[in-house]
Predict the structure.
Amino acid sequence: MGRKQLSEQAHSLAEEAARRGKADQLTFQLAMRICQERPDAQSARAIMAVAQSFEFGEDPKLVKAFLNAVFEDEGIQSAHEELDSLVQRGLGKSGLSYAVGTMALLFSATDHLKEAVNLIEKFPEADLPAHVFNTLIAKASRASDLEGLMETTLQLMRSRNVKSDVASYNTLLNSFHLRKNYEKVEQLWDQMIQHGPEPTPASYNIMINHYLERGLLVESRLVFTEMQDRGVIPDRYTFTAMIKAFGRDNEPERAVELLRAMSGSRLGADPVAYQATIHACLSCGRASAAHDIMREMLENDIPIRSMMWTWLLEVYIAKSDELRAVEVMKKMGELCILPKRSNVLHMKREISHLGGLQSLSRTLDQWEKDTRPDE
């Protein structure tokens, strides 16, 4: 059925109800839904006019469908004008709440964020659901938010005693962090801890990352400890982030412990966590620990980045551990791993500087021939 036929059908439903001299809300909701699915503002206005004559003009579902139909057919400005018209005719609290909420979402969807906030401020009596505010906060977080719309929206939620969900707080935390507004991040976090909403694993991950990116390793560990104390179960990102943190803090043993804890949990350790643990060990010069993990990965068919083998070999060379360096070279050959030219040259210089390790020279010379200069 085409748009014209649907519009005619919707209009006829309303006209038939008027001829019979009676109607029910379901009739008008059905008619308006047809207009919304096949946008036709003219028919939607006619249906709304008939509905108002039966005092159904402020039925919440009807109001929502009406504004959406006008928006889809004629755009945001026409929908806003129809909202003003509905308000002037008089809407009860329920109808007004649906009308304002629908219009605020339409403003948000079309990136008219300031207009959405202004609309909400204009009608303090409108009882808006949390998802209206949450949507606006999410949209503002992705924009420049030069006018502080996120904070304004959060304040409006508080002033109306709308319970904000944790997703909105997570959005705010991450957005303030990205904007380097660190004071706001910590203020908001303190508020969550003291008054709610209860932080989720995603909330803790944002805060751990917030401190790690600033080099505040102690603070990131305190957040992780608090997470465990409050009984919040870490997810894959949490484990991996903290493994990296322990590596940076020169505590590879703790990184390995976390990997083992992750392996024993319902999550199971994934390649990313393994690689992070290997990197943590190698960055602290713990080549044997890294090598053990890599052997474990091979045994369990867990993929290993080629670069990890190169780093492991470089650490063994730096330690003058010829036996294990030869073992790694042999395994790299079996796996058909060829280091980058820059790494090969670095290892040759290291051997020349340290002296000895001559059993490695032939392989390094061959690798140099087989590689091209790094691009």
About this structure: The two ends are 60 Å apart (CA to CA). Residues 263 and 269 are 5 Å apart (CA to CA). Residues 3-20 form the longest helix (18 residues). The chain has a mean pLDDT of 85.
